[in-house]
Structures are given as structure tokens and as C-alpha cells.
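Field guide to reading this record: the first block holds the primary sequence, the second block holds the structure written as C-alpha cells, and the final block holds curator observations. Each block starts with its own label. This record concerns ASCH domain-containing protein, catalogued under organism Gallintestinimicrobium propionicum.

BLOCK 1 — SEQUENCE
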Amino acid sequence: MTGEMMWEAYCRTTNTNCNTRHDIWKFCGGGAAADELANLVLAGIKTATASIKLAYELEGENLPEVGTYSVILFDNEEAACIIRDTKVSVVPFNQVSADHAFKEGEDNRSLKKWREVHRRAFTPDYKAVGLDFDEKGDCVLEEFEVVYR
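BLOCK 2 — STRUCTURE
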């Protein structure tokens, strides 16, 4: 099932207006990591995610808000589930909490590993605008619940 097909099924099932803001995306932009993280969401282990605010600015996209829906895709474009943001905050990279890192559910769920992985993931966005990675750069932290699978 495609992302749009899953969104339409969710809207029919819940009487949600299909024009309600929803995004359709893959974790990490795709690849094996997208499948791994989508499966962590489906298993109830991953209940949070993070992105760098600079990426939203580069793409000219609005930041997510509480209530924003996202259709999560596997790398092959198949829809995995729909999540709904329950908490959104903007926090400097060096102030992301161990609690948030744990909720992301990745690797050993430690803050040390979270920082290592996300520093690597966020660096290309800084390089794209000619900057070095910034430990004080803002991260967009989302906590979510699965509302449809």
C-alpha cells in the first residue's frame, strides 16, 4: 500500500478530513536505516525522532507541530504506519536529553550513541551551506504515537 492509500484508508476509518496536514516520508531519507527504524516504530520501541532545524530552513518547510500526522514509509515505498506528533520541541544539539535518546529506540539507546549517530546524520546539512557542524545548533525533537498500521 502506498503512503497516500494508507492516508486515505485512515481518513475513511476515523472520519478524518483527508486535507488534514500530513507528511509522507522515510526515516533517514531511505535505505536500510529507513526499514530498521520503521520496524522499531511498529514494535513500539521507537516513539521519538529528531532532525536538524537547518534542514527545514534549507527545504523551506514548516516545522512539525503537535497533532501533525506522518505516513512512515519503508525504503521500497510501502507504507509502514501513520504516526501523530504528541510533543514537538526545538532544543540545541548539546542539550538533547538522555530521555529523548532512549525514546528514539536506536542502537543501545544511550545519549552518547545518539549524539554520535546524529552528528554524522546532521553534518551534511551544515556542509551544504558551508558551515561546520554546530553543537549548539537547534534540533527539532518529535515524540509520537502510532495511530494506524
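BLOCK 3 — OBSERVATIONS
The CA atoms of residues 54 and 60 lie 10 Å apart.
Strands lie at 22-25, 48-52, 69-73, 79-92, 138-148.
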